[in-house]
Amino acid sequence: MALSITKTHGSQNDILVIDGAPTDHFAQPDIARAVGLMCDRRRGFGSDGVYFVADHGDGTAQAWFYNPDGSAALLCGNGMRGAGRLLLDRHQAESVVLHTGPYAFTVRAADTTSHGVRQVAVDLPAVDFTPAEPIVAQAEGSFVDQLLPAFHPSRRVTALAVPNSHLVSVVDTYDEADLVVTGTRVATTADVFPIGANVSFALPLAPAEVFIRTFERGAGLTLSCGSGVAASRAVLSRLGQVAPEQPVVIRNPGGIARSWLQPEGDVWRPVLEGNATKVYSAQVDPQVLLGDGPVEYAGEAYLDEVNAFAALNSENRKVLQEAGISLTDV
């Protein structure tokens, strides 16, 4: 039985979405190998990860996410945009719910941009400023807006989980080389950062607009990181720079989005709204993905969607350039 694959992206965080559970297509020991080949940008389809989605047929689904190295991960915020959009289309619904691990994610249809870019909004897990597993070793309680030489000699940092671990610095100037050095330092200082963390620099551009770039654990600089956006947005409110419910325009190198926080009791649940773009769909024999590649397949490209997003992001990149932000594409 052929494997049905759709390549999607949220702020150019490109994710393959596959119909069915992983074990519907592969024996458990073969999943990592197949995912690795699919994500390989020379031999496979090329992507930042894979979502397997088992549709229950009632507007809900079970989802499993895998990193490009084949390792399982709890979630991918930007990938959830694409997976959710496909379910919205299939069920002609205004909202759907995807379950992954202990979490349930509601994905809602959002306004299409003037460029014709389809958008969705995803409710992400509540942010946690006092996670049970400390992000900074020996830190008692929350670690908010503090100096930490092991992180950086002069930039203050806040630690939080969403639920993966993040370290966020709100900066007044953006230095990409500094972000790379800082992210690498965190990745190689296990005595201070025992579980590792994604590192984000957030540069406010206006009262409700911010540039965010993330050095992801195990991946380095990325065009966009959904959980990095959520973490940075929460830090802005924790530091009193913007009210939780205020939608904030988020500019990543990979695209433009919006994010705000939904207060629920004593916690904040982030919402991430942005493009959910279909790139192409393909059919492939699962057995091919257990070989060494290259993968040959027949598919359909969604050029109208790709071109609409390109026009939108061209404007985004122009704004970043005018703000004096120098970027390295990845």
Shape: globular
Number of strands: 19
End-to-end span in angstroms? 35 Å
Derived from helix and strand composition plus strand pairing, the structural class reads: alpha+beta
Largest beta-sheet characterization: 19 strands, mixed
Following the backbone from N to C, one meets helices and strands in this order, namely: EEHHEEEHEEEEEEHEEEHEEEEEH
What share of the residues does DSSP label as strand, in percent?
A: 35-45%
Helix content: 10-25%
Overall radius of gyration: 19 Å
**Low-pLDDT ranges:** none
The overall average pLDDT, rounded, is 95
Number of helices: 6
Provide a brief overview of the structure.
With 330 residues, this protein is an alpha+beta fold. Helices cover 22% and strands 37% of the residues.
How is this structure best described in words?
This protein has 6 helices and 19 strands. With 330 residues, the chain is an alpha+beta fold. It is globular, with a radius of gyration of 19 Å. The two termini are 35 Å apart. The model has no long low-confidence stretch (mean pLDDT 95).
Q: Any chance you could write out the topology, listing elements then pairs?
A:
Layout: E1 3-10, E2 13-19, H1 22-25, H2 31-39, E3 50-55, E4 60-66, E5 72-73, H3 77-91, E6 95-100, E7 103-110, E8 119-123, E9 146-148, E10 152-161, E11 165-170, H4 176-187, E12 198-206, E13 209-216, E14 220-221, H5 226-238, E15 248-252, E16 255-264, E17 267-275, E18 277-284, E19 298-301, H6 303-322
